Amino acid sequence: MATVPTTTPNSIFETAHRKLKDSVSSAHADAFQTTSFEEVWTAAEEIEKAHEARGNLRNMRRIAPFLKGLQNYSKVIEVLCNGTPYMPWIWLADQYTSIFDKLLDAYRQIAEVMPQFGRLQTAFSNDPNFQVVLGLVYSDILDFHRRAYKFFSRRSFHLFFDSMWKSFKFRFNGILKDFARHRDLVMREVVTIDVVEARELRIKSQQELEQQERKTQNYYLHDSISWLKVPDEQHDELDRLAEKRQEGTCEWVFRNSLFQSWKNDAHSDAILWVKGIPGAGKTILSTHIIRQMREGSGFATAYHLCNSYTTGKHLLGELMRGVIVQLLRANPDFAPYIFENYANKALAPSAARVKGLLEKLVQAIPSIRIIVDGLDEYPLSDQRTILNEFLSLSKLPGGQCRILFSNRESENINKRLNGRPTISLRDQDVDLKKDIGLYVYAELDGFRGDFGNDLIDRIERQIVAKADGEYSMFLWVRLIMQSLEECHSPQELVESVNTLPEGLDKAYKRILDDLKSRSSDKSIRILQWIACSFRIMKVHEIKDGVALQMSGAILNEHTKLVDSFWEHCKPLLEKGPKNTIDFVHYSAKEWVLLQLHTDNLLISLGYEDFSEAHYGLALSCLNYMNSSYCFIDSAVSNQALALRVLKGYHGLHHYANEFWFQHLLQYAKAGDPVEDEELDDPLGEIREFWKQEPGIGAGNLKLDDTTSADKIKAQLEALASTPVAQNMGLDVLTFQKFLSQESSSHQAPTNLKDEELRCDPTHFSDISQRYQHIVRTLMDCPVNNPPEGTHPQELYTFKQTYLDSAFICRYRECPRYSDGFKTPEDRDNHEMIHTKPLRCADPNCEFFARGFTSKTGLLKHNRKYHPSLEEEAPPAFEPRKAPEPPLVEPPAPAPAPALASPPLPIPIPRDEVPESVPDYTDQKERGKMPSKGRVSRAKKGLKVHDCDLCTKVNTLRGPMDDINSVTRTRSILAFGRIVAEHFFAPTFSGDMSNSSK
């Protein structure tokens, strides 16, 4: 006999029971504790009667073997079984017929593999090894219940059932395998039970199952997120803004009664509006709220930080997709549903589909909190659309979605949010004054060593006092603090504080007046680049763009600007992460672009209608693109190209390659024809990059969406006066659309780059790939071993400048196509959201991980190896044929005596099973048992067929010789009943309580 294990049976029972109890609500736990077997039987009968009343009667007898098995099991272990939650979710599922059938079938499968506890009750009940195995069986039972409880207790689970049950079934099959293995152990003689082996096998099985389950779930999650096509910019922006918060500030909001009600009170208004003037600290407050709620428990928190650089995209769709991804990461159990119904069908994530999906998730996921910050930065039409859609989300029946909007007032926003609970930062002057005091104290700390504590304390009080009241804003304080950095004596410091501008408007005006008086032309070009670019720019990109913003400009060691070229624009501009430059606040950009026209400063800065700014940026990009011809010039050596890249003459490449035509188009849309002498030469030169006549290449590219070509042509109407530029644009925009189609998203990056080279009507793709290859080579080159003709310091400077974005995403529609990653590993990890193969229906199939690149290939594979019920071939059926008449009529044979057909088993209720019945075991040999071949019915007989049930009945009839007569009788009756139900379902469809009749 095996050694008694150190783990006691009681500890196994207690661990399994505790895990289940911890996973259920307290109310359900109390109900489970008092549930008896009789109540479960009664519940099953009541459910069947309810189904009968609704006209969709189900076969509840499928659950009977499971309940009987539990009864016998409880007699063996005599602990905790009355506290086992047998089937409380039956009541949740019984309204949905297909779901109800799957659940009953699950209980039937468990009953099939449960051990026969009745005959073991007295024989081995005191054996410790045997008790450990019983404990493992108990763990199997409760493992199923725990996971089923989690599955069926989800809100709106019926909406996602079909897809999520397939994922759950993977775990369920693992539980059944454990059941079968432990059943085999229990049915052995006790001396042969190897408990150590049993436990080790269980651990190994659980580990393998969990590993495979995680792997499959990761595939579902990856493909679902890839389908939504959401860039990872929001997370980076949240981290960037969170770093600006001074420690100890913003804590007051968590004590605010309106915020507490919105966060915790399900009966309060689902909407909360945080409003304030520009620069009051709304965004920093929002980021702190987001971080705190995401780190806490009990809420599914999603957010969106609006940014003016996203203007021109489908903002509502982008916002909804971003929210779905965040909810999905917090609730990955919904990934199988999105995978099966959207991602794996190669459907485009249109606004309508995304909206419907988000509504379903909101109804299914409890306690959702969404924070939307900076909605006022979006165009008015997008503000209105986003508000309408998200306000409707908060009203969905059964949903618990609560939304916080943080923004300044505007006509659209006021119209929809007035009357809702509102936290106005203007009314939080006491709390904000404390926060500003903390910020000013921390910022002035560096001045104390040079100017002494007394003077700095006095300066601190003056700044805090002036920031109070109507000027209570963090942005004003930031601008003032940056201006103090120019003071180098106590007198300058005092004078600067005494002449502080009152309010944000006057602070901006003073800064811009100073810019006009200092290096005006260069300042204009810097502000044009930052204000009118299509994404946030890096220092080296603006540096080259400003230098190239003149007719015929080229970059060389004499024309390239120094890195500090922009610093005279402080404090209006600030340096951000990844070596970027941006306005210190959105209101600063807005002030420059929209508000300064009252004193003609806007016109003097070149922003009369933005067309001049786009003209300048288009000129810079064209000048750069023409300088990149060297990459395809056979006369230029690879060493010379590497030297040019190393010296920084191609720092504008990614941006210019992506957006040169967009700036030209924006200039043309202003109404002025593109007939400028300064543009004639650059446009003539860039014509040389076309492989054939401009406009021909677009006709060779097949677009999935037949309306896309018409939309592209409509965009180009502004260039009608310049046919060459119009045809160039037709090729460029069509090619970009071609690469962003859904068919490209399934291709590996290497295949995609090959297709890009083959289909591009221009040489720009070839140039980009050669440039990227040189950058990668330089990044891999050790600093102490630079390329020939260069100095190690040059290589070091190059790496420091370009490292943050050296490795671009290779998928054209991605924002990171022109703004890359620090390492190839980061790039490859990011590209996983683009490489979304179509997967087959079975996660265990070897083709599941590999996937298919086309929908046609997937359909062929599924039809061959994983057909649906509708696609499965019917079972083989050969009708009986009449015998062919013989050539000579034989004499008629004598009639054979009719064999008596045994009656079909009559269903007997569980409490009326006779103690003894005739034993047919020996009669089988005497020919008195019905044959196995065919079951006859009256005089007609049944059609010959070969189904799983009949095979199972015939197979399992035999091994009953070692079972007592009562058990054998019940088994025979049960099999007879199954056969009867199989062939006469309408006859035996009555409820359980009347089955004996």
UniProtKB/TrEMBL annotation:
Gene: HET-E1_2
Short name of one Pfam family: DUF7708
Keyword Oxidoreductase: no
Keywords of this entry: Repeat
Record domain NACHT: where: 270-417
Residue numbers spanned by region Disordered: 867-938
Xref: SUPFAM superfamilies: P-loop containing nucleoside triphosphate hydrolases
Biased composition (Pro residues): 884-908
Name recorded for this polypeptide: Vegetative incompatibility protein HET-E-1
Record's signal peptide: none
Bias kind Basic residues: ranges: 929-938
Entry keyword annotation includes Oxidoreductase: no
InterPro entries: DUF7708, NACHT_NTPase, NPHP3-like_N, P-loop_NTPase
